[in-house]
């Protein structure tokens, strides 16, 4: 049974939507189309850390080689902590189980996710404006209206349109995202623009831990393919009144980040100088960090029709602060779970399938949202006395182990017994 022949429409072609499309193809859903508002695929100019729990799934899709080509190679540890003022080593977190974290440019991850997807399933320049729930006999359950006047018909709609999701709004969920009190400054430094010793240090994932702020460096890419750069993510506390962009994202003067770290160690000053060398206009990306509280229900079922509905996936459903590097990873996990459930569900009862999927995913994503908030507090320090004395990297590692060592494919196999028909499944 299942829903393999249904018209599935994905709204949003970010990392979450593209991961779901890969999962749908992998699972064997036959009729899937993705609609993205941008005229061409692109991601914000920043790095991303894809951890073992998500790499397990991408490897199952066959993307390991493609990702590895553009990712950092084997790193000495998961993260190393340094004192903001002295630059001195505080401690580190060892790697988690295989496959280890891969750090790469977001655009390169998107390229990998595009590799196995037929062009014909991607529709660009399609901003979803509204969704009609049709009642006429013979009509498709849903008609999606795009800003350019075009439409699409669907039995199942997957809202992968991010934290400001229109699909979510169309479902009648009117809650507002919450400002976290933090902004992030994001940019890249070329290793050649750093003094040799600082460049060598930043070939590791390094967190300069300061009071109520921290500067995280992700060594993305690799030297063989010339994709290696130090991705800089400065998490700083700033009141929202100072914020002047409605889009939560803007270009900011590098001076503004420098102001936050003026009295920090020489290595951090090298990073600021490196950012300036690499930036033509003296600016870098600045983003206000928002998150939504978990919601009770991620889906709706079309009234009087048990095999049509709308569901949210990725940041539209389970946004999280980035302090455990899990937003994209959770979307990747959710993608394979939802696609597998839709393809292999034993009956034609979509509500039961959606509920099973949500019950499988929500406890985990809610916990990630909660612990990421706490991890943000631990990544910085609230007072100078917490700088090294009370800081225990081993405890941090233990806090995150349950995230990294989880295998959603195994969980589906176990919990799906009796609900999913595994015949022909690639699980
Ligand atoms: C500073 C920072 C660092 C992070 N680092 C990591 C990390 O290391 N690892 C990790 O796993 N996660 C990380 N994340 C989280 C991650 O970026 C997000 O969780 C992830 O990108 C969410 O993907 P998404 O596809 O759900 O949403 P989005 O990335 O927001 O994509 C939504 C897509 O939908 C499209 N869209 C929106 N509205 C419409 C519409 N009306 N019609 C059509 N299309 C539409 C958009 O154009 C976009 O392409 C980080 C986040 C931040 C802020």
UniProtKB/TrEMBL annotation:
Residues 7-371 form the FAD-binding domain. Keywords: FAD, Flavoprotein, Membrane, Oxidoreductase, Transmembrane, Transmembrane helix. The chain crosses the membrane at residues 7-29. InterPro entries: FAD-bd, FAD/NAD-bd_sf, FAD_monoxygenase. Residues 372-391 are annotated as: Disordered. This is FAD-binding domain-containing protein. Gene3D superfamilies: FAD/NAD(P)-binding domain. GO terms for biological process: secondary metabolite biosynthetic process. The keyword Transmembrane applies. Residues 380-391 have a biased composition (Polar residues). GO terms for molecular function: FAD binding; oxidoreductase activity.
């Amino acid at each position: 049974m299942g829903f393999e022949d249904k018209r599935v429409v994905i709204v949003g072609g970010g990392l979450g939507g593209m991961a779901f499309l890969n999962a749908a193809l992998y699972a064997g859903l036959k009729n899937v189309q993705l609609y993205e508002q941008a005229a061409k695929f692109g991601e914000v100019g920043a790095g991303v850390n894809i951890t073992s729990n998500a790499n397990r799934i991408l490897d199952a899709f066959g993307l390991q080689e493609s990702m590895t080509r553009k990712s950092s190679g084997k790193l000495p540890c998961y993260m190393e902590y340094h004192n903001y003022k002295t630059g001195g080593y505080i401690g580190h977190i060892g790697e988690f189980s295989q496959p280890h974290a891969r750090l790469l440019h977001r655009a390169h991850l998107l390229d990998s996710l595009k590799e196995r997807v037929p062009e014909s399933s991607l529709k660009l320049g399609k901003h979803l404006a509204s969704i009609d729930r049709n009642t006429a006999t013979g009509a498709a359950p849903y008609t999606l209206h795009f800003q350019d006047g075009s439409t699409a018909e669907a039995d199942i709609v997957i809202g992968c349109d991010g934290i400001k999701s229109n699909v979510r709004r169309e479902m009648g969920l009117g809650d507002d995202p919450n400002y976290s009190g933090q902004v992030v400054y994001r940019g890249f430094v070329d290793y050649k623009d750093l003094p040799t010793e600082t460049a060598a240090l930043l070939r590791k994932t390094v967190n300069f831990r300061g009071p109520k702020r921290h500067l995280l460096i992700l060594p993305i890419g690799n030297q063989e393919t010339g994709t290696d750069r130090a991705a800089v993510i400065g998490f700083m506390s700033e009141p929202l009144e100072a914020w002047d962009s409605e889009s939560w994202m803007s270009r900011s003067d590098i001076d503004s980040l420098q102001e936050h770290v003026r009295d920090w160690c020489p290595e951090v000053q090298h990073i600021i100088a490196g950012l300036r060398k690499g930036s033509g206009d003296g600016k870098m990306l600045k983003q206000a960090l928002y998150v939504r509280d978990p919601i009770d229900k991620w889906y709706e079922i079309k009234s009087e029709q048990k095999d049509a509905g709308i569901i949210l996936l990725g940041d539209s459903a389970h946004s999280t602060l980035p302090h455990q590097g899990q937003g994209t990873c959770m979307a990747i996990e959710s993608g394979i779970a939802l696609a597998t459930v839709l393809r292999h569900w034993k009956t034609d009862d979509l509500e039961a399938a959606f509920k099973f999927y949500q019950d499988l995913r929500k406890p985990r994503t809610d916990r990630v949202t909660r612990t990421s908030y706490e991890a943000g507090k631990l990544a910085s320090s609230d007072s100078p006395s917490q700088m090294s004395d009370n800081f225990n990297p081993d405890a941090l590692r233990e806090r995150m182990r349950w995230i990294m060592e989880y295998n959603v494919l195994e969980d589906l196999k176990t919990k799906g017994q009796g609900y999913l028909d595994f015949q022909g499944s690639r699980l």
